[in-house]
Design goal:
The protein is α/β, with parallel strands linked by helices. It has three domains: about 140 residues, FAD/NAD(P)-binding domain (3-Layer(bba) Sandwich); about 100 residues, FAD/NAD(P)-binding domain; about 110 residues, Enolase-like, domain 1. Helix content is about 30%, strand content about 25%. Strands 1, 2, 3, 4, 5, 6, 16 and 17 form an eight-stranded mixed beta sheet that branches. Strands 18-19-22-21-20 form a five-stranded antiparallel beta sheet. The protein has a four-stranded parallel beta sheet with strand order 10-9-8-14. Helix 1 packs parallel to helix 9, helix 3 packs antiparallel against helix 4 and helix 3 crosses helix 7. It is globular and about 75 Å long. The chain starts with a strand and ends with a helix. The chain binds flavin-adenine dinucleotide and nicotinamide-adenine-dinucleotide. Nicotinamide-adenine-dinucleotide binds next to helix 7, strand 9 and strand 18. Keywords: FAD, Flavoprotein, NAD, Nucleotide-binding, Pyruvate. GO terms for molecular function: flavin adenine dinucleotide binding; NAD(P)H dehydrogenase (quinone) activity. InterPro entries: FAD/NAD-bd_sf, FAD/NAD-binding_dom, FAD/NAD-linked_Rdtase_dimer_sf, Pyr_nuc-diS_OxRdtase, Pyr_nucl-diS_OxRdtase_dimer. Its cofactor is FAD.
């Protein structure tokens, strides 16, 4: 007999944890299913441990900038405190008891099982079955996409999970894929002395961002001693027990003690039973409407929806789902026109909304303005490590920003102002009247606006 509940949440990563906890706190009878770690990818293998690694790597780089600005400094990089901090402070050695307790305290019935839809409102979890009167929230995230390259399957390649777990570092590393995961981890390992080679199939790394961002990221990594191949594909991977050899379609080869595959993510819906809820199990993402509804009585949140694979997106969609399920009057509707993202390189590369190319492809009449951080007063003062730029993308017909990039020492923080402008459609002539404090990095926004 199916147990009667209000809501079943399948997958308790960032999105599912937020949705289930909030719904339970609102008084609903909520079951949360998670076979692995409550919290998902972000706290255990993603955002948090990777940003701890980045913090450490940036300290090394910043120490190396002391010479000539503040005296002399030497640093001997040591991975041990980073690996230890990831175990002690980020992941509790990959133990989620604290997260489980927090969720249960909010009133969620936690079941450590894989969930399978068995009908429009029913979910099987191990030997239990639940019938959800209000509905089901699918928050099952993604898994690494491993491309079908000859020889790759069966080799001991790393995914992000292995990279985050590393207790010792290899002498050399090949990184397949120059997206967010690839470039962030590349810079970390390079700054700790690993000889890193990046292989990216697209013409630039950070291929979906402005070309200026990819060029800056490449220059930055090369300054850290990284070898970057772009516009080339791996055709073959071999592992001889000690070393990987990757053959490229331009005839070159790359060698490394480890190989990190960071070629994107994919949904893993094969065993979810989506067809039982009237959804196509072969989809590459679960499409949702502005209420994040996927079907009658089914909501989907987070990476599984394919709308920007970010923790902030999962939280945002969870909030929309919670209000819709609770029937809140004037519930918020999902809109992604001001999607922010920050690649935590040094310099940080933040962006919001459309790139110039995307805006043109949408048929907008586009104007752009840009400024260079090193030529701003604050950039001049900062000196070593001051690389970066602001780029604004304007819909000239409406006179509003539709996209922007902010790269620099605090590029992700400066992005906040631009995200507000794109989100709220603040008129450009109003942005031009803002008093930008002197001498801040964000004052470079004012310089870029002068070009419009
Ligand atoms: C290295 C790395 C760095 C990142 N850095 C950032 C960053 O700095 N900022 C940022 O915003 N984002 C970052 N991300 C992305 C971020 O981690 C994801 O966007 C976020 O985790 C998505 O949350 P989610 O809830 O959709 O999915 P997930 O966190 O993937 O959680 C999904 C959960 O569902 C479970 N599940 C799957 N199938 C079932 C089933 N059938 N039944 C029950 N449970 C199931 C899984 O076990 C998993 O725990 C990073 C990702 C990586 C890999
Ligand atoms: N700072 C952040 O917010 C952050 C950090 C890390 C990850 N993430 C999220 O995680 C997601 C996954 O990250 P990711 O870096 O794996 O994916 P991605 O989609 O960002 O980048 C994958 C890259 O691999 C390349 N690629 C694919 N197949 C290839 C092949 N066979 N050979 C060479 N290159 C190939 C693609 O062209 C692409 O540039 C991102 O989309 C992002 O949303 C976010």
């Amino acid at each position: 007999m199916a147990e009667q509940v209000d809501v079943v949440v399948i997958g308790l990563g960032v999105g599912g944890e937020e949705a289930s906890g909030r719904l339970a706190e609102a008084g609903l009878n909520v079951v949360g299913l998670e076979p692995r770690l409550v919290g998902g990818e972000c706290p255990y293998y993603g955002c948090i441990p990777s940003k701890m690694m980045i913090r450490a790597a940036n300290l090394i780089a910043e120490t190396r900038r002391v010479d000539g600005l503040a005296g002399t400094a030497t640093i001997t990089p040591d991975w041990a405190p980073v690996a230890q901090r990831i175990r002690d402070e980020a992941t509790d050695n990959w133990n989620d008891q604290v997260a489980v307790d927090r969720l249960v305290k909010k009133g969620v019935t936690f079941v450590r099982e894989h969930g399978v839809l068995t009908g429009p409102r029913t979910v099987r979890a191990g030997d239990r079955e639940f019938e959800a009167s209000r509905g089901i929230v699918v928050a099952t995230g993604t898994v690494p996409f491993v491309p079908p390259i000859e020889g790759l399957a069966g080799t001991p390649f790393w995914t992000n999970q292995d990279a985050i777990r590393a207790e010792t570092l290899p002498a050399s590393l090949i990184v397949l894929g120059g997206g967010a995961i690839g470039v962030e981890l590349t810079q970390v390992f390079a700054r700790f002395g690993v000889a890193v080679t990046v292989i990216e199939g697209a013409e630039r790394i950070l291929a979906l961002e402005e070309p200026e961002s990819g060029d800056l990221a490449r220059a930055t990594l090369e300054k850290d001693g990284v070898t970057v191949h772009t516009g080339v594909h791996a055709t073959k991977v071999a592992h001889d027990g000690g070393e990987f050899t990757v053959t490229l379609d331009d005839g070159n080869t790359a060698q490394g003690e480890k190989l990190l595959v960071a070629t994107g993510r994919r949904v893993d819906l094969a065993r979810l039973g989506l067809d039982q809820a009237g959804l196509d199990p072969a989809v590459r993402r679960i499409e949702v409407d502005e209420h994040v509804r996927a079907a009658d009585g089914v909501w989907a949140v987070g990476d599984v929806t394919g709308v920007g694979a970010f923790t902030h997106t999962a939280m945002y969609q969870a909030n929309v789902a919670v209000h819709d399920i609770l029937g809140t009057p004037d519930a918020p509707l999902a809109s992604y026109h001001a999607m922010p993202r920050v690649t935590f390189l040094d310099p940080e590369i933040g962006a919001v909304g459309l790139t110039e190319k995307q805006a043109r492809e949408q048929g907008l009449k586009v104007a752009t303005g840009s400024s260079q951080i090193p030529y701003s007063s604050r950039g001049f003062i900062h000196k070593a490590g001051n690389e970066g730029f602001i780029k604004l993308v304007v819909d000239s017909d409406r006179g509003v920003l539709v996209g922007a990039t902010s790269a620099g020492p605090t590029g992700g923080e400066v992005l906040g102002a631009l995200a507000v402008a794109v989100h709220a459609g603040v008129p450009v002539n109003s942005l031009q009247q803002v008093i930008y404090a002197y001498p801040t990095f964000h004052r470079a926004i004012g310089d870029a606006l002068k070009q419009l």
